[in-house]
Design brief:
The chain has 13 helices and no strands. The longest helix has 34 residues, at 61-94. The chain has a single domain, classed as MetI-like fold (Orthogonal Bundle). The chain is mostly helical. The protein is 69% helix and 0% strand. Keywords: Cell membrane, Membrane, Transmembrane, Transmembrane helix, Transport. It holds the Pfam family BPD_transp_1. It is a multi-pass membrane protein.
């Protein structure tokens, strides 16, 4: 009987695990091998160059520029997204005026949840095209609004200015991710007894103090997970940047994922691009490990 059960389980496990090994694990392993070659992607032959590609990374100005932008995103994206999401989620859960029904969310909270979550139903491609049109210098909604309210002097070629393009993309990243974490934090806050908030209000605690001293400590496990996911997203950021700015102007909004893409499919240096990918792999693992270590706290039991 036990033998038959194991055979039944293996029958369902082996095919998906085999597909995962072939289409996910195998390409990763091949990337490590290709990173040690000078393969150009189309030639059937190549030479092993050892760690030469990794040595070139240390001297590549474009790679360092992309890493600098990724580092800024790595700091700004999690902080801005989590702070905004916590504020909105707190307002949706306990931001309303207390009355006979006790602590409750703001009026229309269900509608606001839908509005905040709406960007999540859009693909990255649609979000990129949408915001590219919003930032358009002549026909864009942003400049059109500024001109309509008499602020013509603030109108800019947003994506054509090297000093602004990167920050415009960062704003889109925050906008497209806040909604998901609003819903995530809001769901986690439902497990916090409302009596805790009512007691805090009776003691005269302000909303900001309640958020900082009650909500954040009790949601810390969820915040930690959000921080790791946003950190991983910050290391990539390829799709949105590629659609909105193509890394320009003048590589001012370039990121490491787009640098890998351009190196492989633009310059046909697949060996060097694989070295960039391997470096990204270890960088992502390191950042996830550090983020988990730095955000680790003792769990609070209710």
């Amino acid at each position: 009987m036990r033998h038959g059960r194991r055979l039944f389980v293996l029958t369902f496990l082996v095919p998906p695990l085999a597909l995962y090994a072939v289409f996910v694990i195998s390409p990763y392993l091949q990337a490590f091998q290709i990173s040690l070659t000078d393969w150009r992607g189309l030639s059937p032959t190549y030479e092993y160059v050892g760690p030469e590609n990794f040595g070139r990374l240390l001297q590549d100005h474009y790679v360092w520029n992309a890493l600098k932008n990724n580092a800024i995103i790595l700091v700004a994206l999690p902080i801005l997204t989590i702070v905004l999401a916590l504020f909105f989620a707190s307002m949706l859960s306990v931001g309303g005026r207390s009355g006979k029904a006790g602590v409750r969310g703001v009026r229309g909270a269900a509608f606001y949840r839908i509005v905040y979550f709406f960007p999540q139903v859009l693909s990255v491609a649609i979000i990129g095209v949408l915001w590219k049109e919003v930032y358009a210098p002549r026909s864009g909604i942003l400049n059109g609004f500024l001109r309509a309210v008499g602020l013509d002097s603030l109108a800019r070629p947003w994506l054509g200015d090297p000093d602004l393009a990167f920050w415009c993309v960062l704003a889109v990243m925050v906008w497209s991710n806040v909604g998901f974490y609003v819903v995530l934090f809001n769901a986690a806050m439902q497990s916090i007894p409302k009596e805790i908030y009512e007691a805090a209000m009776l003691d005269g605690a302000e909303r900001g103090e309640t958020l900082r001293k009650i909500t954040v400590p009790l949601l810390w496990d969820t915040i930690q997970v959000a921080w790791v996911y946003l950190a991983i997203l910050a290391i990539d950021g390829f799709a949105l940047v590629q659609i909105v700015t193509l890394g320009g102007p003048g590589n001012s909004s370039d990121v490491i994922g787009l640098r890998l893409y351009d190196t492989a499919l633009g310059e046909f240096k697949f060996g060097y691009a694989s070295a960039i990918g391997v470096a990204m792999f270890f960088l992502t693992l390191s950042i996830a490990f550090v983020a988990l270590r730095l955000t680790r706290r003792d769990r609070i039991e209710l």
